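Fold this sequence, please.
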Amino acid sequence: MKDTFLYGGAAAISKASAFISFPLLAHHLSKADYGTLDFYLVMGSLLVVLFVFGQDGAVARYFYEYEDPSERKQIISQSLIFQLAGLLLFLPIVWIFADFLSGLLINVPNRIELFKIVLLQIPFLLLINFSRNLLKWTFARNQFLILSLGAPLLQVGLLYFAVKYLDADIILLLKVFLLSNFIFSLLGLCFVVKWLTIPCGFKRLGEMLPFAIPVGVIGVLGIFSPTMERMCVEQLLGVSSLGDYAVATKIAMLIAFAANAFQTAWGPFSLSIHKGKNASETYNWVLKVFCLCTCIMTLIITFLAQPLVNLLASEKFNGSVILVFPLVMGLAIQAVSWVTEIGIGISKRSHLNLYSFASNLIVTILGIYFLTPILGILGVGLAVMVGFLTKALLASYLAQAAYKLDWSYRPVILIMLVTLLFGLASMRMQYISDFTSSNLILFLGIIVIISVGWMVLLNRNERKRVLSLIRIS
C-alpha cells in the first residue's frame, strides 16, 4: 500500500504539471493563444499514446512472469525497439506531410511550425514515459521520484523564466517544453540503461502484442476524444472559445486529481478482495461513500468556479465558468463508474472497455455538433458530460455481464440525479439572472446532498463505519 501511494502520488503530481503552470500561462497569453497552446499540448499527448500503443501496459503485464533478469531485459528491450522503430518509420512521413496534416487541425497562425515543434517532442516524451514506467516496475523509488517530480518542476521554472524575462509567445513556450522533455529523456535513459540489451529475436514482443493492441486502442480513444473536442470547439465557435474551454478543463482537473488518487488505491485493493465473502458489502460501501464525496465535491468546485477562474486565469476567461459544472459532473460520473466497472477487471476481459470508450467518443462528438449551434459553448460541456454518462452506463452494464456483483444502484443513482438537477438549475440561473442566484442554488444543493446522502444513501451500519473511520483518523 505504501508503494501504491508513493508511485500513484508522484504520478499524480507529474500529471498535475499542466495545472501548476496553468495560472502562469493563462495570465500571460490571450484567450486565443492559451487555447492554441493547450490544443498542441493535448495533441502531443495523443501522438505519444499512438506511438506507445499499449506497450507500457504489455511490458507491465509480462515483466513479472519471468524471474530471469536476462528474460526481463529481453522484454524491455524488444518493446523499446518496437516503439522506436514505429517512430523511425512513421514520424518522418508525418514530418514530410506536416503542411497538409496541420491544415486538418485548428486554423491558427504558424500552425505548421507549432505542429513540427510538437512532432520533435514525441521521441523525448516516449522515452520519459518508458523510463518512468520501468523505474516503477523495478521499484527504483529514488530515480522514479526524480524523474516524476523533477520534470514538472524544471518545466515550470523554465516557463516562468520564459514568461517573465523573454515575454514568450506560443512558439517559444512550446520550445521550452521541448527543452525540458529533452533533458529528462536523457536522464531517464541514464537511469534505465542497465535494463537494456541487444534483442535475441522478437519472440517476447510477439507474445505481448495481442495484449498490447486492445490496450493501445483504448488508450488512443481515451486521448483522442479531448483532441476532437478542442477541434470541434475551434471549428464551431472560433479559437477564442478554445481558450475558455481550455481553462474550464483545467478547473475540472481538481476533481480528476481526487478521482485518480482514489483509483490508484482502489484498483489493487478491489482486485485483492473480490474472492472474500464480504466483498460485495465492501464494494457497495465504497461505492456509496465515494459517490457522496464526489457529488459534494462537484457542487463545491462549481460553487467556486468564478473566483477560481478569476484567480487562476483572469476575468478575460469568465466565459469558461458556465462550462465547469458539466465538465466536472462528467468526470464525477466517470469516477463513480470506475467502482461499478470492477467486473471487467476481475474477469480479465479488458477488451470490453473498447465499447465504452468508443461510445464516449461517438456520443461526445455528435453531441457537440448538435448542441453547440443551439447552446453555444455550453453545448460542448453538456455533450462531454453526456459522453461520460454513456461510457459509464455501458461499462457498468458490460462489467455486470462479465462478472455479476450485487450492487445497490438505486440510492447512488438518486444522489447523482439530485446533484445533476442542482447543477443544471444553477447553470440556468446564470443565464437568466446572475452568479449570486446561481451560487445560492449550489449552496442549497450542497446542504441537500450532505443531508440526503447521509440519511438515504448510507444505511445505519454504513454510517457507523464512516464515523469509526473519522474517529481513527
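The two ends are 17 Å apart (CA to CA). The mean pLDDT is 86.
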